[in-house]
Specification:
It is built from 3 helices and no strands. It has about 70 residues and is an all-alpha fold.
């Protein structure tokens, strides 16, 4: 497996995991909700993956990000 293929699979795993978690954020405890908001903000704004994660975002996830993560770059 090449580095490019590995990176592609890693990004797909991040996407699947975080999209699922964000889809259930309303059901989380306050601690978990705040944790997910902080981690998502870091991934979007400060992660080395942020440029590679750009692309189409499901509408429901976009609404959650707009609701909870106002300072997205």
């Amino acid at each position: 497996m090449t580095r490019e293929e590995l990176n592609k699979h890693l990004l797909a795993a991040f996407k699947e995991f975080y999209m699922d978690k964000l889809g259930h954020i309303e059901e989380m405890s306050e601690f978990k909700k705040n944790y997910m908001i902080d981690v998502t903000r870091l991934l979007i704004n400060d992660s080395y993956l942020s440029n590679q994660m750009k692309g189409e975002m499901p509408q429901n996830v976009r609404k959650l990000i707009e609701k909870y993560i106002r300072d997205v770059k």
